[in-house]
Amino acid sequence: MAAYWIARAHIVDATEYKKYTDLVPEILKKFNGKVLARGGRFQTLEGPEEFERHIVVEFPTLEEAVACHQSPEYQKASAFRRGGAGINELVIVEGGDATK
Q1: Would the pTM of this model clear 0.85, i.e. be above it?
Q2: Domains in the chain with CATH codes
């Protein structure tokens, strides 16, 4: 069952954050991730408006999404943003029957 990596980001230091975003597309591909939305227009309908960037990545399974996040490659890349370049929220949600 497909799983979706949903991230919200607030960029503090665009130069350092770009070091992270330049590396991530190849890492996602390695784990069969398909970017569905990255940046772009958005409208906050509920909740805090502290994030200006939203990302949605589809993976074939929840396990592949988690493996991507836990991979040494992703951990190394995310160190750029974790060093103060940005604030992120990330959740992985498994797709399913929306009628349940």
Answers
A1: yes
A2: 3-94 (3.30.70.100)
